[in-house]
Design a protein that fits this description.
Layout: H1 24-27, H2 41-46, H3 49-54, E1 94-100, H4 155-158, H5 164-176, E2 185-190, E3 199-205, H6 215-219, H7 222-231, E4 233-239, H8 242-245, E5 249-252, H9 263-269, H10 274-285, H11 291-300, H12 309-313, H13 323-332, E6 336-344, H14 345-355, E7 359-363, E8 365-368, E9 373-378, H15 387-400, E10 408-412, H16 418-423, E11 426-430, H17 434-439, E12 442-444, H18 460-467
Parallel strand pairs: 5-6, 5-10, 6-7, 10-11, 11-12
Antiparallel strand pairs: 1-3, 1-4, 2-3, 8-9
Length: 472
């Protein structure tokens, strides 16, 4: 049987140069419309190898250079060169709010490649445990080998903000997570300034298949954690819905959340037992001790303190940056506010008056009516504001005002805040203890408490308008 004539064999289809470039990054741009492809499968199959090769322009790049700045694109992103992937209108969406940690760099040294002022042979600090990644940040207390060196701090190379390459990297990570594989549509908004944004909101759909990757697992996925470390950012993931953008009840812890201090520690300073009380407080906030038992133990140390100590503490307590702006903006939007504190009622009521908060619930200290001093006991007719009581108060205040739990926000920093963080529609661990950050639904470690407003989809201009004194 005669062998086929190789001269008449059809040529294998090949990838035309117009469909590729010389750069992987340029092939995966996120911030420009897709380049229309004029080739059809018939053109490809009907062309010969020689004619295809001769038509190639090896130096051509079908994608124009990137814009110098990250701006609101107003388009749908995709790493694929095709028109928008059509999805059903009811397709669920997820929202990722990316915060650049401008006030908390990974290390204080600039990368040698980004500055000429680096000393020859300058070494980076020794590896440490990142806050929020383990119950303790002390390497000596971790019963295993020291952690691996930190990933390369890419923000030092590409800009101390949420850069275009940072967003591209995030979108590629999200594209790679779903199993089985599925194409996603994504878009973004810069929530503050456009040239070097500190906060960017990314919306993508459809979400990963929950049979393979649940939403709670996605929030704590190792790939996202590494992305945060590499780019010095924090990512907060939420399910998109009208309730994400329209909250009606926000509850706060008081100590180390709305104020910088721990009120019981400040009282202890008056009688010289600050060290003993502070040690118990720290262990309780880390979840190492039962909160109610530890509270009674600490209160017993306050026996004999003059009852007017609370008036003196009002000048000592420092309201955290952004708390006033946050509460004012929330009130302008019609939200009910509450402070649910494991501290003490006189201080909680004072703080509520300062910030315009509607509800104040804290612990009541017993006062000797004759000596006007603290007895070292709690008033037995009032419940202890522990973890379970905070969660119950969140639900009861919401029910009292006819507010669905999905329209609630809880903010706290201690182990006794975890139940209410999980119960709320959005629970935020604010600059929390390491163990709390690991277990909380979301966490933020910013410098200004008003950053929480970005989680509601508000822009910097929206916040300025809400807190403006010109409102009537």
């Amino acid at each position: 049987m005669a062998s086929p004539n190789p001269a008449t064999r059809p040529q294998r289809p090949i990838l035309q140069q117009s469909l590729r470039s010389n750069s992987f990054i340029q092939d995966h741009q996120q911030y420009k419309p897709s380049i229309p492809v004029s080739q059809t499968i018939g053109n490809v199959l009907g062309s010969s190898f020689d004619s295809s090769f001769s038509s190639m322009n090896l130096n051509s790049n079908p994608i124009s250079p990137d814009p110098d700045k990250v701006t609101d694109s107003g388009i749908i992103h995709s790493i694929f060169h095709h028109h928008t992937n059509p999805l059903a209108p009811e397709t669920p969406q997820l929202v990722a709010t990316i915060y650049y940690k401008s006030g908390d760099p990974i290390h204080p040294h600039l990368h040698p490649d980004s500055t000429a002022n680096a000393w020859p042979g300058e070494k980076l600090p020794s590896p440490m445990v990142p806050p929020g990644s383990a119950p303790t940040v002390d390497i000596e207390k971790i019963p295993r080998e020291p952690p691996a060196p930190e990933p390369e701090p890419l923000d030092h190379l590409y800009g101390p903000f949420v850069s275009q390459l940072c967003l591209t990297n995030f979108l590629q990570i999200i594209e790679s997570l779903p199993t089985p594989y599925q194409r996603m549509n994504t878009s973004h908004r810069c929530l503050d300034k456009h040239d070097s944004p500190r906060v960017v909101e990314v919306t993508f759909s459809p979400p990963p298949n929950p049979e393979y990757l649940t939403f709670s697992d996605l929030r704590k996925h190792e790939s996202i954690w590494r992305f945060e470390r590499e780019w010095n950012v924090e990512v907060v993931l939420q399910k998109e819905s009208v309730f994400r953008r329209h909250k009606r009840l926000v509850v706060f812890d008081m100590d180390s959340t709305l104020v910088d201090n721990e009120s019981i520690d400040e009282i202890a300073k008056f009688i010289g037992v600050e060290k003993q009380v502070s040690e118990i407080t720290e262990r309780a906030m880390n979840g190492e001790l039962d909160f109610s038992a530890s509270l009674k133990e600490r209160v017993s140390l306050l026996k004999g303190v003059p009852a007017d100590v609370f008036d003196k503490l009002k000048s000592v307590l420092k309201i955290v940056p952004g708390a006033r702006e946050l509460c004012k903006a929330l009130k302008q939007m019609g939200c009910k506010l509450a402070v649910l504190s494991g501290g003490f009622q006189p201080l909680a009521e004072w703080l509520a008056g300062e910030l315009g908060i509607d509800y104040a619930h804290a612990n009541h200290l017993e006062i000797d009516p004759e000596t006007q001093t603290l007895t070292g006991r709690l008033v037995p007719t009032y419940p202890i504001i522990d973890a379970n009581q905070k969660r119950s108060l969140l639900r009861s205040i919401a029910a009292e005002n006819g507010i669905p739990i999905a329209q609630t926000v809880a903010v706290g920093d201690g182990a006794n805040d975890l139940p209410m963080l999980h119960a709320a529609g959005l629970g935020v661990a604010w600059r929390a203890k390491s163990m709390v950050q690991l277990e909380a639904p979301t966490r933020l470690n910013g410098e200004n408490l008003s950053d929480i407003l970005f989680l509601l989809g508000l822009s910097h201009e929206d916040v300025k308008e809400l807190i403006s004194d010109d409102l009537v």
